[in-house]
Each structure stands twice: as structure tokens, then as C-alpha cells.
Amino acid sequence: MTTVSADPLTDAGLRARLARLDTAALSDAMDSLRAAPCVLPGIAARTPGGVAFGPAFTLRYRPIEDDGGFHNAANYIDDVPPGSVVVADNGGTGACTNWGSLLTSVALRRGIAGTVVHGAVRDVRETREAGYPLFSTAVTMVSGKNRVVLERTGVDLDIDGTPVRPGDLVFADDNGALRIPADLVAEVVRRAEAVERTERRIREAAADGTRLDEARARYGYARPWEDGGHDDAR
């Protein structure tokens, strides 16, 4: 049986700090830890400007043969805890969809943070108009009904080489999607904040006329997560 990690975002302060970050800083922070792969390959934003982060609610689909009967693709949405990010794995295929406007409407009502689909979605216009953060490998109009069924929820996933466990932090924005193991979230947030401070200092120095290479050397661009504590005053 899969063990679900405790939600690292029960700390309101940590959640607020995370909300001010983006995938770029978080990815750099993960690089600094030389941790397991964090990027979910091929995932793109379908709601421009949308940001989703929260513990992963994982599920996996499997294909079925057409036997002439009706097979709903999946009934799970009413069991997803508020604040979670749905991570659905259909092998990355664009052959049929795994998310549409009905799921979006229920997800919004239930306070689900967003959805990442390793596969295809549809009804993109309706989802964008609703402002729901949706991310996927592909888009298609073809229904998943009678083509795939839900195999299991709460399962460990492998998204093209990146593991996602139930309860891992998933963060997605216009750059794509990544995962952070629950036990690393606090340290990754600390390092990502340092990365952003370092880059802000470099940007400000360059805006004042300093050569970019000089600004990078001065403010520790090679190891930005260490945040050498340089004074912002110039």
C-alpha cells in the first residue's frame, strides 16, 4: 500500500512564501540539492498565467478494449481533498482526453488547486474562462470514455523518468510543472528565495549600468542559493 506523505503546506507561513515563488527558482533550488529529477517533462500550461501548487493527488489510467458497453473514464474528483493538485497519468498520450469542463467545474467548487495531466485535456476555452490552472502534455477533443478507465488513485507515478508520489508538492506555472518531495519543501523554499534575491541584485546592478558579467560575479550567480548576504544598498 502506498504511504502518503504529510502535507508540508499545513504551515501557513511556508505556504505564503511558496506562493511568491515560481518554477524557475524552485528548479534552481532543486538543482543545488542534486536531488532526483523534479521536472515533469512535456507539461505545458493550458490556462496562461495560472499557478497551481499543493500536495499531489495521483491517479493512473489504463486503456480498455471496446466491448460494446459504456465505460466512464474515471470517477474520483469528489474524493480529492481541497488544496490538492490532481496529477493524472495516461502515459503522455494525446489519443484521448483525461480532463474536461465537467471536471473543471467540480474542481473549482471543491477548492482543488489545479490539475496536471500526463496526457491530453479538452474544453480548454471553458477552463481558461473559468481561470482554473490546467496543465497537460497534449490537447485533443477526443473523449476518454470507452477508451481508458481509472486504474488506481494514490499510486506512485513515473512521468517520463520523474517520480511523483502521493503527497509530494507539485508546483506548476507558465514554465511547466515540477515536483518536490514533501520532506525537502522547506529547504527548497529557503534556497529558492535566496536564488530570487541573488537574481534581483544582479538585475538591479545591470539596470544601473554594471556589466552583466561583473554583476554576476559580485552577487554569486554561480551559487545563487547560498545568498552571500550582500547589502542591497548601492
From TrEMBL:
Family annotation (CDD domains): RraA_family
Enzyme Commission designation: 4.1.1.112, 4.1.3.17
Gene Ontology MF annotations: 4-hydroxy-4-methyl-2-oxoglutarate aldolase activity; metal ion binding; methyltransferase activity; oxaloacetate decarboxylase activity
Keywords in alphabetical order: Magnesium, Metal-binding, Methyltransferase, Transferase
Top class in the EC scheme: lyase
Catalysed transformations (reactions): 4-hydroxy-4-methyl-2-oxoglutarate = 2 pyruvate; oxaloacetate + H(+) = pyruvate + CO2
Cofactor: Mg(2+); a divalent metal cation
Residues annotated as binding substrate: 100-103, 122-123
Pfam families the UniProt entry points to: RraA-like
Biological processes annotated in GO: methylation
Function per UniProt: Catalyzes the aldol cleavage of 4-hydroxy-4-methyl-2-oxoglutarate (HMG) into 2 molecules of pyruvate. Also contains a secondary oxaloacetate (OAA) decarboxylase activity due to the common pyruvate enolate transition state formed following C-C bond cleavage in the retro-aldol and decarboxylation reactions.
Family: Belongs to the class II aldolase/RraA-like family.
Quaternary context: Homotrimer.
Protein name (record): Putative 4-hydroxy-4-methyl-2-oxoglutarate aldolase
